[in-house]
Amino acid sequence: MDEANTKAAILRDFLDLLDWQIPQNTQLEYSVEAFGQTYKVDYALILDGTPVAFLEAKGADTALTADHDEQLSSYMMNKNVNYGILTNGKQYRFFQRRVDASNVNVQQVGDIVLEDLPNRLAVVKAFEKDAIESGESGKILGRINELREARRTLEAEKDDLAVELSNVLADEVSDAISSLAETQAKEMIDRLVADIESEIDADSTESPKDGDIGGHSPDPADSHIVGRIKRSEIEGDNDAKVAVFPTKRSGLEFLRENNAWGFVRIGQNPEFVAMYLSEDVREIKYVARVSDIVSATKADLARPREAYFESASDEAQAGFDPDQQVVVFEEGSLYELEDPVPYETKYPQSLQYTTLGALRTAETTDDML
After folding, report:
1. Distance CA 29, CA 39 (A)
2. Of 29, 265, 301, 366, whose CA is between 20 and 30 Å from 291?
3. Is the pLDDT of residue 202 over 80?
């Protein structure tokens, strides 16, 4: 489609998705001076009579280029507009004008193909009318920028950071654990990078509905989550050992399907497992009683092992380790907590242990980790 058809068929619906309405708060063909000439921005998004964002459209038959990026950036700089979107209906590039002391520039904060928009709502939400009007947009994009910078630092300095962490543990505990601690520190950094990527690309600010997680949607009737329970109602001794695992929301599918958790390394025999949901949820939200711990190669799973790895088709590429284990739960013991434990400052970046008593009484994660 050419530009006119792209606008008619796609972009008005896209603007409607962001709650920008024509003509109430969206002006077409807005005049802007750039490169010594007067140009027309396709859509100016208006609040209180002032443009706060520009949307520049190209035809679906036109590939987006760096020249298009520069064009929109010039429009934004000329009119002191903080937000911009460049799109051909198939690809969406999001921009933010940033002011740092005397330095003013426009940065790209997202480059998303149409099919991936539902998985990148954290960025999209920043361009909604209410978010820009309330100032929430700056907070959303500021956090995304900070997380991206943190990810770059972790990736670039992974080895040095792992050595520093292992040295701290060696000084505080024992030199004997130095080499082990360095290996574990690298794995922790890898998990932290993955969690950062997950939060940057968070697909929603709401809790998922049953069957909406991952590429496979089990029948809710087949879910092993038997219901909801208050922490005070969990039966067991206060000193019973609880293994606390972190998981992304996609990991809930494994719980539901298998009444188990994997693929992990676990050196102790806990009586319970508690699941901490990372991303935007940040709560200890599920609990189950442990029945058995078995080798991942012998575990009876609902699907083949490789089906649970998203990034590769074969186990070696996906990071499968034959020494990993699967923690099997007692039948009918997997519950969602009615009173989940909210995050404060501490959260399990990897397996941690606590007690059932601490889980029952904790007001935040800091009270049990």
Report:
1. 9
2. 366
3. no
Other beta carbons within 10 angstroms of residue 323's beta carbon come to 9
Whether 285 maps to a domain, the answer reads: yes
Q: How far apart are CA 99 and CA 349, in angstroms?
A: 34
Give tens-digit pLDDT for 88-107. Answer: 999 999 999 988 767 888 98
Residue 7 is classified by DSSP as I
Contacts of 301 (CB under 8 A, 6+ apart): 257, 258, 260, 262, 308, 326
Identify the domain containing residue 103 by its residue range: 3-141
Q: What share of the chain is helix, strand, coil (3-state, %, to 5)?
A: 40, 30, 35
Please state, rounded to an integer, the average pLDDT across all residues of the chain.
84
Q: Among 360, 36, 92, 227, which Cα is nearest to 368's? A: 360
pLDDT at 318 over 50: no
Gyration radius of the chain's alpha carbons:
25
Residue 297 has pLDDT above 90, yes or no: no
**What pLDDT, on the 0 to 100 scale, is given for residue 270?**
96
Residue 264, SS3?
Answer: strand
pLDDT tens readout for residues 174-185 = 988 888 888 888
- Residue 26's domain is classified under what CATH number? 3.90.1570.30
